[in-house]
């Protein structure tokens, strides 16, 4: 038997077929466009998602692997925070507003001003432009004729669930990123629903990520080739599903996703929240909770440096990293702030800018490359330090994403964190986690932790080097204070 994980990303849907022992049998990706109607706006057509997903399912079912190991259940993962609106006839009312859409700052300010500390009490989080509730408020204020027709509010992956099963449902991990959700109690926050003036009936039913909450309909079976009646589990938001896919399901292990953005993710056995809401506090996909820090530019900083500044092709990454490996820790006093797209954790500041500080005539290209790698590591450490302040145990870091392929960058992370940095056998991310959740829902494993213990193990480990650890401990406080000293300057630049 096999299990199908479907991850609805921002630029493509990824489908993964997993065997009962965790072996990845087949993966397929189908792309779709993002639309940018205005500066700072980002939208997609839900029908593009469905077309790509249904085509991907047909393709993966046509493979030899699927023929030998028929699909037994399905798990869903996807980009969080997006807003899909349907009317009474389940027709799409407008293009979906995505997690990266920045149009809702005024709505976030209004929510924060009106609710104050009650917002954290209701939702465990602060209002950010990426979240779903401010998007609903934006539609209410700017498109009232659409707002009046809202019958269903769905998250992106849950639109696919509806097309597959006919169920209006979501899971607790994805719901946690809406600002409609009471994370502590793992249920919708009626206070937030009332505050925004929405009927509670527009929100989908909410389940744990490993629970079966629907079955493939006859219509979906005819469209996709899946067998009618196949179970579909709750699934999870992409970060929670990705953490399941790397085995970060117990306290003590932290996940660092070193992709375009950077994410530091720690599992909690019990609920707690950072008093200043510097971290996201969400429900995890395994029945527990997690905290998460997000930096908006991580591996994208290196990509910008290689392609835009140094004007090199793909081979340039290797050349620049080789140069940087000869530079001592600390880049001879050069510090890089990785705020190319503003920042989220620990500074929710769209005006934050990237900077090099400490340049002298002795610095060259290799120093600047090394400083970028170090600056991203320091930015991730900002989130790690907040996790430490919450007394969440950390014994090991598991790193994933494109940046994790660099041995040099992994060593820098180990030295900056003063923790072992590991790579695991799973490299497929959220789609793999969704397949694991599907296997748990089918009863193959008793729970998510046992499934991860069976399927995921460490393949490489990088330990910190004491002399470099001491160097970075001395530099980190200087890095950390730079934002505060430059914040007013960033704000002034943002007004130009």
UniProtKB/TrEMBL annotation:
The UniProt record lists the Carbohydrate kinase FGGY N-terminal domain at 3-245
According to its UniProt record, which residues of this chain constitute the active site? Answer: 238 (proton acceptor)
User: What InterPro entries does this protein's entry cite?
Assistant: ATPase_NBD, Carb_kinase_FGGY, Carb_kinase_FGGY_CS, FGGY_C, FGGY_Carb_Kinase, FGGY_N, Xylulokinase
The organism's place on the tree of life at top rank: Bacteria
**Which keywords belong to this entry?**
ATP-binding, Carbohydrate metabolism, Kinase, Nucleotide-binding, Transferase, Xylose metabolism
Record's catalysed reaction(s): D-xylulose + ATP = D-xylulose 5-phosphate + ADP + H(+)
Name the site position(s) for Important for activity: 7
Give GO MF terms, alphabetically: ATP binding; D-xylulokinase activity
Q: Where is the Carbohydrate kinase FGGY C-terminal domain?
A: 255-441
Which positions bind substrate? Answer: 80-81
The UniProt record lists the keyword ATP-binding: yes
Per the entry, what this protein does is: Catalyzes the phosphorylation of D-xylulose to D-xylulose 5-phosphate.
Kindly give the PANTHER family that the UniProt entry links to this protein: SUGAR KINASE, XYLULOSE KINASE
Q: Give the family this protein belongs to, as stated in its UniProt record.
A: Belongs to the FGGY kinase family.
Tell me what this protein is called: Xylulose kinase
Q: Which organism is it from?
A: Propionispora hippei DSM 15287
Gene that specifies this protein:
xylB
